[in-house]
Amino acid sequence: MEITRIGRRGMLFTFFYLQDTGFGVTTNVYVINAKNYVFVCDTFLGPESMKEIKRYIEINFRDKPIIVFNSHYDWDHIWGNCTFETSLILSHEICRNNIIDKAEQELEIYSEHRRGEVNIIPPTNTFTDELTFYEEGVKFFYSPGHTKGSASCVDFVDGVLFAGDNLEAPIPYLQDGDIKSYQRTLEKYLQLEVDTVIPGHGEVSNKSLIEDNLKYITSLTNNQAEEYLKSRYKEVHLQNLKLLGKL
Ligand SMILES: [Zn+2]
């Protein structure tokens, strides 16, 4: 695990476990040390990894309550919720429903990747459009894309967007076929006053990652995505075409 300071009050925890086990990606958990709360965006693969973050928060940001956010329901972003059982856990309402419906099954399928003893804990509180913590300068908002229930977090103080798996280099994976909504989400991201963009997996970036991903999603909506058959994109692109029924 690697810790990177972002801006004045952000800490990025990057985990290498999935990269080492053949998935080929690092995974990000983003922590914002705001005025009265500490926000934890996504919880990776379980308590073993999240205990380190919890301890870091206890040592460095003592006494502040923790609020957890799930960007989407996928197993590699929510299994650590059980480390924060006494905290509020936020998500979009579709995300919570997906966790209730699908997380136990995903835990069985991918159980070898658990980091510690995982209990599935669904979000305790949901929103439909957005939820702003005005005193904290932090907003969570609905951003359908990678999944129908995906949401994002923006820190206005540092100008940081945490986008979960809606953004990925070089192109994102689709798990939902509504690419028009995906396009609108990425266009909305571009309007935000942020300089730093953090995807659920991979390197910290800036708006160029949003632009690259928007170009790809737009090419899918226009059926003009041939250039993505090049090797760098090919594997993910073919999976996306399959999901869209275009293969
Ligand atoms: Zn993921």
TrEMBL record:
<feature type="domain" description="Metallo-beta-lactamase">
    <location>
        <begin position="26"/>
        <end position="201"/>
    </location>
</feature>
<dbReference type="InterPro" id="IPR036866">
    <property type="entry name" value="RibonucZ/Hydroxyglut_hydro"/>
</dbReference>
<dbReference type="InterPro" id="IPR001279">
    <property type="entry name" value="Metallo-B-lactamas"/>
</dbReference>
<dbReference type="InterPro" id="IPR050855">
    <property type="entry name" value="NDM-1-like"/>
</dbReference>
<dbReference type="Pfam" id="PF00753">
    <property type="entry name" value="Lactamase_B"/>
</dbReference>
<keyword id="KW-0378">Hydrolase</keyword>
<protein>
    <submittedName>
        <fullName>Zn-dependent hydrolase</fullName>
    </submittedName>
</protein>
<dbReference type="GO" id="GO:0016787">
    <property type="term" value="F:hydrolase activity"/>
</dbReference>
